[in-house]
Design brief:
With about 300 residues, this protein is mainly β. The chain has one domain. Helices cover about 10% and strands about 30% of the residues. It contains 5 helices and 18 strands. Strand 3 and strand 4 form a beta hairpin.
Length: about 300
């Protein structure tokens, strides 16, 4: 069933998820401090791999990107929390595709989005197929990704982008007299509804992503030979999961307040980028891995 509006709002907030403690950093070369949350001005984002908070590694070049380790065959989800006291629309693109409609995203304000109430937290588990269900995000090799299988592979493969948009204030059809400043604050930043939708040629373009999965500049040339024989991950079309939502109206501002970026790679890809991946044995033991019996499938 197609939605009647271009925005979505989860009917209920996701269960409260407590971020795991930050992993200790190190002064060793090529090791970067980690945390589990990417912080924005309106929203924060966490990647959870099979219900465990995944460590985020900071970009080696000091940019605003974060990196996370991908594990082939495992499901992951994106936890988004609204840290503000106002409604916020959130646009999420995975592998360059809008997670609501599965189409190539232009990262513009006229796309379909999720809407979070003040201080609400939501868990985005997959590609939305209806108002009632999603297909879970799952790490697969790039050639088996949803983008590749739908003929939409692009330069944003391996990238997760989360943009937040404030809600426009109602347009006041009042023309203040010359010298009258009473309405100055109310009109600041207000945009008429007819102008509030960004035209296609005005929409911001995703950053170009040449050879090495989006890494531009000298670093791409240096790591490409090391990764040439390695598999690289994408996000696949996972199992069906019930995830009910409703629709609401939301008139977003033209420009995003936050643009949070997370890139995922297998451990070999992270090492090629100069990021030393550390195992967290406490979490592994707690999840019942590495020698511990797993529950039966049925």
């Amino acid at each position: 069933m197609k939605p009647t509006s271009n925005t979505f709002r989860p009917l209920q907030a996701a269960l409260a998820l407590v971020a795991a403690g930050a992993l200790a950093g190190s002064a060793e070369a090529r090791v970067y401090n980690t945390d589990t949350w990417a912080d924005g001005r309106l929203v924060d984002v966490q990647v959870r791999v099979e219900n465990g908070a995944a460590p985020l590694y900071f970009a080696p070049d000091g940019s605003n990107r974060h990196y996370v380790q991908a594990f082939a065959g495992r499901n992951y989800s994106l936890v988004v929390r609204n840290t503000s006291g106002e409604r916020v629309a959130v646009l999420i693109a995975v592998d360059g595709l809008n997670v609501v409609n599965g189409e190539r995203s232009r990262l513009s304000s006229n796309e379909q989005m999720y809407v979070l109430s003040p201080y609400e937290t939501a868990n985005i588990r997959g590609w939305r197929t209806s108002l009632d269900e999603v297909r879970k995000f799952v790490f697969v090799d790039e050639e088996r990704s949803y983008a590749e299988r739908t003929g939409q592979a692009n330069g944003d493969m391996g990238w997760i982008r989360v943009l937040s948009f404030r809600e426009q204030r109602p347009w006041l059809n009042v023309a203040p007299r010359r010298g009258d400043t009473r309405y100055k604050d109310d009109l600041r930043g207000a945009i008429p509804e007819a102008e509030g939708r960004m035209q296609a040629d005005e929409a911001p373009q995703a950053a170009p992503a040449p050879s090495a999965r989006g890494e531009a500049g000298p670093m791409a040339k240096s790591i490409a030979p090391q990764m040439s024989n390695e598999s690289v991950p994408g996000t696949g079309w996972g199992e069906r999961s019930r995830d009910r939502i409703g629709t609401t109206s939301f008139n977003p501002e033209r420009r995003a307040t936050d643009h949070l970026i997370v890139r995922y790679e297998y451990a070999s890809g992270l090492r090629a980028l100069g990021i030393e991946v550390r195992r967290n044995r406490v979490q592994e033991r707690d999840r019942g891995e590495l020698g511990f019996a797993k529950p039966p499938r049925w």
